[in-house]
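Box 4.2: Ligand-aware structure prediction
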Amino acid sequence: MIFKTHNSLQTRQLGEKLGSVLPAGSILALVGESGAGKTCLAQGIIKGLGVLDTYITSPSYTLINEYYGRYPVFHFDLYRLSGLPEVEELGVEEYFFGQGIAIIEWADKVRELLPPHYMEIKLDKIEETVRRIELIPRGENYRNLVNQISHVDLAT
Ligand SMILES: Nc1ncnc2c1ncn2[C@@H]1O[C@H](COP(=O)(O)OP(=O)(O)O)[C@@H](O)[C@H]1O
Ligand SMILES: [Mg+2]
């Protein structure tokens, strides 16, 4: 499923809608260049999971931010990690099991560590303010999720 958003508010809204329907243990693998809107989307997802706006920040310097909404939420930004060994050392895959929600920016760096089922989200900057956001479900449960947000109405 492909969405196009025309400003950061719409991207946040799409994230919020997705966050509001996520079941426990969901894994969201965000992939896309810098400025593609990964953090923006992640912040919407976190809000949709019931975390108050005022607590939501960017994990650029912290690698991982942890929140408590409907479930524990782990927001990763793996940009600074050089390679798989370094990631493995951190034991991030520990977070990919259990009730918590994992939202992973630069998830392509840990693809080998992801479980077989997850939602891949590809973001592309196609114009200065236009973002193409593709949801690629890996596994049956994630296909159902995509159906649940297929009719989302983004503010104009
Ligand atoms: N449609 C859009 N969706 C998301 N961000 C947008 C959009 N149009 C412009 N922007 C801007 O692009 C930037 C996206 O940054 P960010 O979410 O941090 O990207 P990333 O985490 O992928 O590096 C923000 O400055 C945001 O205001
Ligand atoms: Mg980011």
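In the box above, the bound molecule is adenosine-5'-diphosphate. The two ends are 20 Å apart (CA to CA).
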